[in-house]
Amino acid sequence: MTNLKDLEIDHTANGYYLPTSVQWEYAVRGGTTDTWFWGNDSTDADAYAWYWDNSDIVDGRTTHPVGQKKSNEFGLYDMAGNVWEWCEAGSRQSLRIIRGGSFDFSVGNMKSSYLNEVLPVSCKNRFGFRVVKGGRPESQ
């Protein structure tokens, strides 16, 4: 797909959906309360994430295959860096929440509590998503 404007989403399909921002933060933290899911030291980021300081490997900064860095305590890979992850919009229509930072942003954008907002039609190679399978939260 080359144009997200043409994408139609069935929010009830097979029980899969985008996580809410709260669900996403729970997943990234993996049971921790530290600044980043790996702890409070930003210099440890290279072991866990692709971001500005380490993603320029050969032909410039770009995304990388999932699973090349260490996982968080829940066993989830690439929760920080690589690509920003879209979250469920809820009642928000004008902007969408993205979480996790990406390969072309600094380590500060990968803090577990950090979120950013973008227009729903934003389309960049630094955006991605992961889905949740199961019952939707009551507030949805």
TrEMBL record:
<keyword id="KW-0808">Transferase</keyword>
<dbReference type="GO" id="GO:0016301">
    <property type="term" value="F:kinase activity"/>
</dbReference>
<dbReference type="Pfam" id="PF03781">
    <property type="entry name" value="FGE-sulfatase"/>
</dbReference>
<dbReference type="InterPro" id="IPR042095">
    <property type="entry name" value="SUMF_sf"/>
</dbReference>
<dbReference type="GO" id="GO:0120147">
    <property type="term" value="F:formylglycine-generating oxidase activity"/>
</dbReference>
<dbReference type="InterPro" id="IPR005532">
    <property type="entry name" value="SUMF_dom"/>
</dbReference>
<keyword id="KW-0418">Kinase</keyword>
<dbReference type="InterPro" id="IPR051043">
    <property type="entry name" value="Sulfatase_Mod_Factor_Kinase"/>
</dbReference>
<feature type="domain" description="Sulfatase-modifying factor enzyme-like">
    <location>
        <begin position="17"/>
        <end position="133"/>
    </location>
</feature>
<protein>
    <submittedName>
        <fullName>Putative serine/threonine-protein kinase pknB</fullName>
    </submittedName>
</protein>
<dbReference type="InterPro" id="IPR016187">
    <property type="entry name" value="CTDL_fold"/>
</dbReference>
